[in-house]
Batch of 2 targets.
Target 1
Amino acid sequence: MNSWPRSLRAPHVVNIEDLRQMAQRRLPRAVFDYLDGGAETERSLRENNRAFEALAFRPRSAVAVPQCDLRVKVLGAELAFPAILAPIGYSRLIHPQGEVAASRAASGAGTAYILSTISGHKMEDVRAASTGPVWYQLYLLGGRAAAEESLARAWKAGFTALFVTIDTGVAGMRERDIRNGVGQLMAGNWLGIIPYAPQFFTRPEWVAAYFMDGGLHALPNVVIPGKGPMTLLDVAAALAESVVTWQDFRWLREVWPGPIVAKGVMTGEDARRAIDAGAAGVVVSNHGGRQLDGVSATLRVLPEIVKAANGQIEVLMDGGIRRGGDIIKAICMGARAVLVGRAYAYGMAAAGYPGVTRAVAILRADLERTMKLLGCASIGELDESYVQLPRDW
């Protein structure tokens, strides 16, 4: 793509790790680690990636595949390839374009974008940036009244599916964030940031963009009745007071006209509970290793959830996707499609909208090349016969 800046083209950038390194050079340590890090020992974060390394391909050789059909239907929407841009809280901190850039890039690639409740941009602006499917992710911040207002706005704006995150009873223990002063940064506590100031002095481009964008913004999509938009300072405490339970799904089905997906399912039992609660789908997710440390990699538990779902609901998966081959492995293990988060966020951090488009293009090119090397002409033909499971699985 000739419109990419030279810094985003080969040989400077050829994979997602190259974008990660660019992001690390541009962002202050607090912001980079907020994006890159996980909870506690980060074991689950590492295991998400290692699970893909443990799974080997079983290609069909001597097969000509001049064209690959990468299309897939998810929640009634036709996607050009089976990778959806996942919700990332307050992407505007990573780059001023934030959620608007992600929505626009997803649209250009023919796929869907999921907007986080904890967004720095108004949902109406995010929706307007896309001509494709845009979906909304819900935290019950501010209680049911605030949620009902945001859901009404989302449906009116054209969001067509709702992803309800169910694994955030409290915020995970992200030790990097504590060491780097993320709490002070999110609170706008400039006196408290003084001990952490050197990391910002070495990233003048990010600092200039941050202040030109007006610094921290209140959350425009979480409006507390009688109080106005919630501030970032309130989010951690609000999460602990807004746990989503299966009983909430009955209320959500009454206030949301479209399909509802439970995000954060890690057991077959919870998959069956999601079916009973009227969900149209689940996302097999451990929150990118950012919540409960020590849980299994999502790829490893995916078959259990697929078996429990028994074709009654759609099964998606996230966690650790860095290559097109990772997407294929997840589909071979039963996922309808995957959500990618950090992979595109590294691109956003590196270069805003062009960086996101570069990340998505890398994943798509990887996907198509790997399909041809596997001797498989269609996403719909992928199954477990194309991979070799490790003995300990």
Target 2
Amino acid sequence: MGMENLGRRGFLKSVGAAGMVSALPESAFAQAGGGAMTHEVAAPGPGANLPQHAVKFAVIGLDHDHIWSMVEALVRGGGQPVAFYSDLPLRAAKFLNLYPQARRAGSEDEILNDPSIQLVASAGINNLRAPLGLRVMRHGKDFYSDKPAITTLEMLAEVRKTIAETGRIFAIMYSERLGVPAAVQAGYLIQQGAIGKVVQTISIAPHQVNAPSRPEWFWDPVQYGGILADIGSHQADQFVYYTGSTEAQVVASQIANVRHPEHPKFQDFGDMMLSGNGGAGYVRVDWFTPDGLGVWGDGRLFILGTEGYIEVRKYVDVVGRPGGNHLFIVDGKQARYIDCSKVVLPFGAQLLADVVNRTHTAQDQQQALLATELVLQAQLHAKVLHLSATGR
């Protein structure tokens, strides 16, 4: 993985005006098509017709709220939650309330040694996920982790080695693509050639810090991995997937703690430039979402192609249409708005089918780990900016 030494001014200059696309009014999109923007509602898509598989699965680690959507994805695909283990009483009680058919195991080993369990899911503390995944795979089961699934390059190497030795699946839930209907629809459009060859992805991913609700490990980069390794992993996944890159490197990366001096090791801003054999990418992540937005983040995705471009407004359209899952596409003929709220998410059903059929339909294993490798390299080599929230 090569790194180029770029200053902040040169870094931002190299991004160019692409990051300003989100500021364009809808009229700008309409003019691109020479007339009024068309409005469509996307069909449910192929995910609506996927077969279900009654795979027995368990959960170890309820530390992050992503676990609820992770489990629901499996249940929608036919999965059967049969057991869980957690040392957090309130979260354990919530799990039992949602899934009374699951037993509360007395230990992790009780689950690992149960031959009827085929898959183990986890949203434990970030730096504990990969070590758990190694134990799961060595017990002959597949592993399904929240992101970031891996927080060090040394652990990444061990995960790759164990996958090769055991033949097990190490799935990573990059929910900003796999759990967002509009992002899934963008993938369908790209596969259909709707914007030609993808040239670049730009991901802008602000998050709401909601400090009072965060556990102590959230503020420790050793435990959460750092901002690029953590929330940046979503964006690296999108870059790898939409560009189709099988090889990639980090061109430059930056991190900063701007407004959380009470947690001096925390990082609330980060960005990175990526280059792959399928295209280029730029990522910006932060913990600055203001309370007035009404949702946890105004996530935007821009995909530039040789024959058009796509913008996805994932969670909110500020002073625009209600709700989320808004997709705009402009090609050589017209500008279109697509409501993607009815698109069915295929990931859960596909992952269970992979467990049964020993395939990798839900997620390409090498691309999933390449996204992880990129953010770990970006985090390790990031330039630390010294910015102040109170002045220059």
